[in-house]
Amino acid sequence: MDADMVDGEAPITESVDEPVAESDDASGVVVEDAVELDAATLLAERDSFRDIAQRLQADFENYRKRVSSQTADEVERATGRLAEALLPVLDACEAAFVAHPAEVEPLFNLLLGELRKQGLEGMNLNGQAFDPNLAEAVMREDGEGDGNGNAIVTDVMRSGYTWKGRVLRAALVKVRG
């Protein structure tokens, strides 16, 4: 038996480093066309995946902005509900302030100041033309209005408040005219 034989088979003598003969015939052109076609296909796929990635990134950014906006809106509504719940406390402080200004003023100013920081504003309607969007007329007295047929607010019986530009609670007022 030959020493170069392994398991009864002849050894492979072909070298891997041998150059493959290049052909000048049409098969070389076909290979080049196939490579160009593969490159074009790969570039098209790359562009498609890039477009998909950019759309996903834009969708995610829009989602993030929407969630952030919704969260801010929810916080805003919750804060508004808290301010509305505190209006009876503010009314009690205001009534106590009228009866005992020196004793209640620090507490009243502190409470009102904190609520103002959050967006609460009192409506100053005395002497103004009556606006049913801002106040409820609970009493009416005879007399001249503003000359244009509009009633004038003569007394505020319960303060009205706005919260960041919207009416939180309408004032209860007495009107003339």
List its traits.
52% helix; single chain; 17% strand; Nucleotide Exchange Factor Grpe, Chain A, domain 2; 3-stranded antiparallel sheet; 177 residues; alpha+beta
Radius of gyration: 42 Å
Main-sheet strand order equals: 1-4-5
**Structural class category:** alpha+beta
Order of helices and strands: HHEEEEEE
List low-pLDDT spans.
none
For the largest beta-sheet, the strand count, sense and barrel status come to: 3 strands, antiparallel
Shape: elongated
Give the helix level as a range of percent: 40-55%
Strand content: 15-25%
Can you count the helices? 2
Domains counted in the coordinates: how many?
2
- End-to-end distance: 131 Å
The overall average pLDDT, rounded, is: 84
Number of DSSP-assigned strands = 6
Plain-language structure description:
Helix 1 (26-99) packs antiparallel against helix 2. The chain is built from 2 helices and 6 strands; from the N terminus they run ααββββββ. It is α+β, with helices and mostly antiparallel strands and 177 residues long. 8% of the residues are buried. The radius of gyration is 42 Å and the shape is elongated. The strands form 2 sheets. It has a 3-stranded antiparallel β-sheet with strand order 1-4-5. Strands 2-6-3 form a 3-stranded mixed β-sheet, with no helix packed on it.
